[in-house]
Amino acid sequence: MGHVSVLLDEILGFVPSSVKEGGLLDVTAGGGGHFFAILKAHPLWKGECWDRDPDAVLRIQQKGVDFEGRYQFVAKEFSKEAAPESKFDFILADLGISSFQLDDPRRGLSFYSEAPLDFRMNVGEGPSAQEWLAQKSIKDLEDILIKFGEEKSYRRISEALKKLGPDEFSSAQKATSFLMKELRLSHKQGTLHPLTRTYQALRIAVNDELGELQSFLTWAPRHLKKGGRLAIISFHSLEDRKVKRAFESLSDEGFNILTTKALTPTEEEVIQNPRSRSAKLRIIERMI
Ligand SMILES: C[S@@+](CC[C@H](N)C(=O)[O-])C[C@H]1O[C@@H](n2cnc3c(N)ncnc32)[C@H](O)[C@@H]1O
Within a domain: residue 31? Predict the structure, then answer.
């Protein structure tokens, strides 16, 4: 299964169509869905796309065959600023992980994967999940589960996480089974997996996803041309809150908020792509 781009029509509708030879920056290339759809709709535009996951380059190369000479891919985190002289007409960040990453059995991002339990988007970067968990106290884990997972059973889960040993880390499936047994949980088919919030919180923390977003919000608006737009799709309330606050303070500094209320997917989109369920889109425009 590929990745279905979320809120694609809405994104396409906000790309400034009066700009003929525009410049696009997509800092979350993923499968290139949004990126190439924008280049296709605007044949004279050129673009740059980034991803911290080095595997993204292969997907982008495959999808980009019809766009040779119009784009470049850079393996990089979006916390790192664009080149000082580069200014864009449209900047996009579609946060979180792609379905490619979630469905990739080598990554251990899904509950029953045979791959080692490792929440990194780039396994060559930073400590593994096992090393990372070893550095955290039960109190640290409790804070993470509350803050990033809004998990009510944070105490029991933190204690169980500290009991994971090398054998459990060797496969996500073993870790999941161990935690389910330790916490006396069961999973009814068709309902949210009881460890969803836990794994989400760990992924956010291991990848420093909120720190990445904070840094991005400080540099991205300055890299818009006059009339240029910055669009951010977020998938949980902590991210959306950060985007909302940053945009509100920019509205005193020559930026116009184009989405007073965050845009969300239609019912039809949610039915077709349940992963779009929690998406929120906010957009600002540079006025001066
Ligand atoms: C939801 S997917 C993007 C999907 C893409 N918009 C599409 O339509 O195919 C998010 C992508 O952002 C990447 N990503 C997440 N955090 C990142 C960061 N801090 N810096 C760069 N890329 C990041 C992930 O590796 C993933 O490939």
Answer: yes
The domain spanning residue 128 has which CATH number? 1.10.150.170
Give the model confidence (pLDDT) of 26-72 as tens digits.
999 999 999 999 999 999 999 999 999 988 999 999 999 999 999 99
Atom of ligand 1 nearest to the CA of 3: 9
Strand partners, 52: none
Question: Ligand 1: which of 7, 61, 71, 121 to mutate, most ligand atoms within 8 Å of CB?
Answer: 121
Retrieve residue 88's tokens.
């864009």
Give the structural domain span for 181: 122-206
One domain for residues 136 and 269: no
Residue 167 burial class via C-beta count within 10 angstroms: exposed 0-12, middle 13-18, buried 19 and up: exposed
Q: Ligand 1 centroid to 271 CA: how many Å?
A: 22
Residue 111 within any structural domain of the chain: no
Cα–Cα distance for residue pair 41/24, rounded to 1 Å? 12
Instruction: Tell me, in angstroms, the distance from the centre of ligand 1 to residue 19's CA.
Output: 26
What's the CATH number where 273 sits? Answer: 3.40.50.150
Residue whose C-alpha is closest to residue 282's, from 250, 221, 240, 252: 240
Residue 28 has a pLDDT of 98
* 116 part of a folded domain: no
Inter-residue contact 71 to 46 (CB < 8 Å)? yes
